[in-house]
Amino acid sequence: ADLSQVAARKNLNETAFFFPQLLSDRDGIVRMTFTMPEALTEWRLLGFAHDRQLRSGFIEARTVTAKDLMVQPNAPRFLREGDVLEFAVKVSNQSNQRQSGRVRLTFLDGMADQPADALLGLSQTEQPFDIPSKESRAFHWRITIPDGLSVLTFKAVAASDKVSDGEEGCLPVLARRILVTESLPL
User: Fold this and answer.
1) Beta bridge partners of 63
2) Cα angle 22-28-30, degrees, rounded to a multiple of 5
3) Inter-CA distances, 60 with 27, 46, 53, 73, 164, Å
4) Is the pTM of the predicted complex or chain greater than 0.85?
5) Strand (E) positions, the chain?
6) 38, 51, 75, 126: which has the fewest Cβ within 10 Å?
7) Would you state the pLDDT for residue 7?
């Protein structure tokens, strides 16, 4: 599979507020359509409606957003110049068959929008995977944070011949001279 063609999920909001489009059929059954954030999790839907006569209704439901192959990076909240760490990415096979393919982790300098893999000492960005049905595997890349970066953008993607997934996010990089207790929340 071509990992450069895998679209990474970016909208990982934990809540979704929306004004749904309501479509009713001739039997009076109403359908709601809306866009969910791209987070792979269980969602709780709460709905409240009323009419001009103040009659009201309430709905509560749960749903799970998941894919057959799920990529879940385990990124820290922030990095510091000089840090050496193992960046972990979990790949989960939720399908009913074994999945084999490749997983890739790449970094960009968030300010310059330029590749940062070489700056981080990351020479091998891809690793092969072979995951049995309903199991997960963790993959690790050792990176060293150089001086002078302020934001890193990571992108973790995985693909087999049939399914793919990816996730993208940003990591703030704190300077060595700033104590963590002196930093401002982001």
Assistant:
1) 43
2) 25
3) 22, 5, 22, 31, 31
4) no
5) 21-24, 30-33, 42-50, 56-64, 69-74, 79-80, 84-93, 99-109, 114-115, 126-131, 135-144, 151-160, 164-174
6) 51
7) 81
